[in-house]
Amino acid sequence: MSDNYRSREERRRAMNDNKPEGKSQGKPKKKKKGGLFRKIVAAVLLIGIIGLIAGVGTFFAMISDAPKVDDSVLKNSFSSKVYANDGKTVVKEIGAQKRTYVQYDEIPQVVKNAFIATEDVRFYKHHGVDFYRIGGALMANFKNGFGAEGGSTITQQVVKNSFLSPKKTVKRKVQEMWLAYQLERKYSKQQILEMYLNKIYFASGEVYGIERAAEKFYGVKSVKDLTLDEAAMLAGLPKAPTTYNPVTNPENATKRRNTVLNLMAKNGFITQAEADKAKQVDVQAHLAKQTESTSKYDVFIDQVIEEVKKKTDADPFSAGLEIYTTLDTDAQDYVDDVMNNKVVNFPNDKFQAGLVVVDNETGGIQAIGGGRNRVSGGLNFATNMRRQPGSTIKPILDYGPAIENLKWSTGQPIKDEEYHYSNGTPIRNFGRNYKGWVSAREALGRSLNIPALKAFQATGADKAKEFATGLGLKLDEEDGEAYSESYSIGGFRTGVTPLQMAGAYSAFANEGVYNAPHTVTKVKFPDGTEIDLTPKSKRAMQDYTAFMMTDMMKSVVNESYGTARAVRTPGLEIAGKTGTSNFSADEKKRYNIPAAGEKDVWFNGFTPNYTISVWTGYETAKDGYILSANETGMAKNIFKHVITHISEGKPKGSFKQPDSVVERSVEKPTGKDLKRPSGSTPSSLITKEYFVRGTAPTKVSQTFVKKEKEEKKEEKKEDKKEDKKDSKDVKPKITASYSGGAISVNWSASNAASDTTFTVTMSSPSGSEQLASGAGAGGKTISSPAPGATYSFTVTTNTGESASSSVKVPDSSDQATEDDSTKPEDDGTTNDNQNEDNSNTDQNNGSDQGDDSSTQPDDNQNSNNGNNNGGNNSGNTDNNNNDGGNVNNGNSGNNNNNGGTTTPPADNGGSDSGSQTPSTPATPSTPSTPSTPATPATPQQEPTTEN
Question: Catalytic: which of 79, 391, 821, 839?
Answer without folding.
Answer: 391
